[in-house]
Specification:
Elements: H1 7-35, H2 47-65, H3 73-87, H4 95-107, H5 115-119, H6 132-140, H7 147-182, H8 191-196, H9 205-226, E1 238-239, E2 256-257, H10 261-268, H11 272-295, H12 310-328, H13 330-340, H14 354-375, H15 379-403, H16 415-422, H17 430-438, H18 440-443, H19 452-464, H20 469-503, H21 506-525, H22 532-554, H23 562-568, H24 572-627
Antiparallel strand pairs: 1-2
Helix pairs in contact: 1-3, 1-20, 1-24, 2-3, 2-24, 3-19, 3-20, 4-6, 4-20, 4-21, 6-20, 7-14, 7-19, 7-20, 9-24, 10-24, 11-23, 11-24, 12-15, 12-22, 12-23, 13-14, 14-15, 15-19, 17-21, 19-20
Length: 636
């Protein structure tokens, strides 16, 4: 019997969402890279939300010990789902990219860059604040939020983001049965939160051994950041490419080694096939670079200078994964459509009817297209841009459900880049390119803070804990709608207090928006031609991914997983290849010599690695916010 969720779970979730948003904005905007911080939203298990959830679970244990009223397991899972789905939108790829972009195009305009002449007239007045003093104070700081200037943009963009998030939720509701019940994706990121709600979880000694290792490491390294005489044990990336000095091996490119404990812990929960494929195909990307240098390909510049076009291969892989997901679900999608138009009844047991999900997605899609059109983008540009962006999100969500990849980057050839530098910009009008630049809030390759994977996790956790998925979905929607407005205002308050050009993190406040408009100005001044080499590698990546799927689905002995190929051609695997290799090696050894029994017995150690790393990073970041100390980041 699935349990309904009480009002107290909703209230606790909303209060903690606001607290995590405040913590997140302060840590990432004020501590920034200058004093260091653990990124609180951009890992596959968001550190800020996880630490808040751990606090709730711990307090709930105390209440139960003294026979006081406590939260049920379903209520705990609902709170976790609310935290993860709502707070992640605040960080990189979300509000931290959107808000500075709304003002940067005007603040950094100068006679030299000619931004005013090139694109200011194409920016709708309702897009951005119109008060020059409001824009100036955003960067100078020491000012209250000019709510009169920001109210309209804040409401408009919050509504836009809510519609986008609702569209991704409808996609998850449509694919829930296919991905969770039929394909039975592994969902490595839900295992720890679900286990934490079980009685006796914290009594396992192996768990505390695993916990202690990263927790102590974080403490030592944070002390070292503040007292340099204390030796540091850094497990973060160290580039080994400078050691390759002889041609063609010096073309290997940035190749760091790292030993992130939490990534090794998550890797232990991933299938051996995905782990092997991920690091194997990453090495293949390095081999391609070396071979290109050996053969002199791309050494003279020109349209093939980007060889081996890893971003384009990744883009092809992402599109192929979306195509295969639709193909594998074709019969299910037919049932969804027939049910939505009233010709069939195939949605028994679903959180919401397929009619609700199908028409919810359709209407949301049309609203997003209408938003782009009213802003000035032609429909012939807006429709493919939004479709490609949703395809990337769907692929990323499905991949995360199998690979649990700690950082969910898409290929650097994101939907925006795919429609500009690949196809070329000569076919677009200036207003198309201008609005496309503002749409980077959902067409960026930075998918680390995408809400969609956490929505799917919530549906999986509902199944595992026999919790009402309908109640979880309703609570998620309330948390997102409430959180968007509150988080938007908190972010503005911090920027106006500390100044985007003064004391706030410059990467978010300056670098990202400047890069966006520098690219826009370049396109407008010097339109790009179609690059047929990049298109060829995009098609090649798509075909190769389809081939990998064909082999995987038809031959049990086939060792390569297409998910690994897609991840390898993104920035994600640059940092993860070594932890994934170690997790693969450890898991292979344990299963080979101890079987599944030993694998399950050893699992608490690896769950401890995740929790110890996250709690250590969260606590030191909180101390950094309170006492202004330097902080050792655990995940960047």
């Amino acid at each position: 019997m699935r349990k309904l969720i009480s009002l107290r779970a909703l209230l606790v979730g909303l209060v903690l969402s606001v607290a995590v948003d405040l913590w997140l904005h302060y840590a990432e905007l004020v501590l920034g890279s200058a004093r260091g911080h653990t990124a609180l939203a951009n890992t596959s298990i968001p550190v800020g939300a996880f630490c808040a959830f751990l606090l709730v679970v711990s307090m709930n244990q105390l209440l139960r010990r003294y026979s006081l009223p406590s939260l049920t397991r379903g209520e705990l899972i609902t709170i976790y789902a609310m935290l993860t789905t709502s707070t992640v939108i605040s960080s990189s790829g979300g509000l931290h990219f959107l808000i500075p972009t709304l003002v940067a195009g005007f603040w950094f305009a100068s006679p030299e860059n000619k931004w005013a002449q090139l694109f200011h007239r194409y920016v709708p007045r309702w897009f951005v604040p119109q008060d020059k003093a409001a824009i100036e104070n955003f960067y100078l700081g020491d000012s209250p939020v000019p709510i009169h200037a920001w109210l309209k943009p804040m409401l408009i963009w919050s509504a836009f983001l809510f519609v986008l998030v609702f569209a991704t939720l409808c996609i998850n509701l449509i694919f829930r049965k296919q991905w969770i019940e039929r394909e039975r994706l592994t969902f490595p990121t839900v295992f720890l939160p679900v286990e934490m709600t079980k009685e006796g979880f914290f009594q396992n000694r192996l768990f505390w051994i695993g916990f202690a290792i990263p927790f102590i490491l974080v403490g030592i390294n944070t002390l070292s950041f503040n007292f340099p005489t204390i030796p540091r044990i850094d497990v973060r990336p160290r580039d080994i490419s400078p050691y390759f000095t002889t041609p063609p091996f010096n073309a290997i490119g940035y190749t760091p080694i790292s030993f992130y404990p939490f990534v090794i812990g998550i890797g232990y929960l991933i299938s051996l096939e995905v782990l092997f494929s991920s690091w194997f195909f990453f090495f293949l990307t390095r081999v391609q670079r070396i071979l290109g240098a050996a053969w002199g390909i791309g050494q003279q510049g020109g349209p093939i200078a980007e060889f081996p076009f890893l971003g384009h291969q990744g883009a092809g892989a992402f599109i192929a994964i979306a195509i295969v997901a639709l193909w594998l679900a074709r019969r299910h999608l037919k049932d969804v459509f027939l049910t939505a138009i009233g010709k069939k009844k195939a949605d028994e047991g679903e959180p919401f009817s397929y009619k609700f999900s199908f028409w919810g997605l359709t209407i949301s899609f049309l609203i997003i297209i209408l938003f782009c059109y009213i802003a000035g983008m032609r429909l012939i540009v807006a429709i493919p841009l939004v479709l490609i962006a949703l395809a990337y999100m769907m692929s990323a969500t499905r991949m995360r459900a199998e690979a649990g990849n700690a950082w969910l980057f898409g290929p650097d050839v994101d939907p925006n880049t795919l429609m500009t530098s690949t196809i070329g910009t000569k076919i677009y009008l200036p207003q198309d390119l201008t609005i496309m630049s503002y749409m980077r809030v959902f067409t960026s390759y930075d998918l680390r803070c995408l809400s969609m994977p956490h929505q799917l996790d919530a549906l999986k956790m509902a199944e595992l804990t026999e919790t009402s998925p309908r109640s979880i979905v309703i609570n998620i929607l309330i948390a997102i709608a409430f959180g968007l407005l509150i988080s938007f205002y908190i972010a503005l308050a911090i920027w106006y207090k500390y100044g985007g050009g003064a004391k706030c993190d410059s990467w978010r406040s300056i670098t990202i928006p400047q890069n966006t408009f520098n690219s826009l100005a370049s396109w407008l001044e010097t339109p790009l031609p179609t690059n047929w080499y990049s298109i060829s590698f995009l098609i090649g990546g798509l075909i190769f991914t389809l081939f990998l799927y064909f082999m995987k689905l038809n031959f049990l002995w086939w060792p390569f997983n297409p998910i690994g190929y897609a991840i390898a051609n993104t920035f994600t695997m640059t940092w993860l290849w070594m932890p994934f290799f170690l997790a693969w090696l450890i898991k292979l050894f344990i299963i080979k010599y101890g079987g599944m029994k030993l694998y399950r017995q050893a699992m608490p150690i690896f769950l401890g690695l995740i929790m110890g790393d996250f709690l250590g990073g969260g606590l030191t970041t909180l101390l950094g916010c309170i006492f202004k100390i330097n902080v050792y980041p655990i995940n960047w």
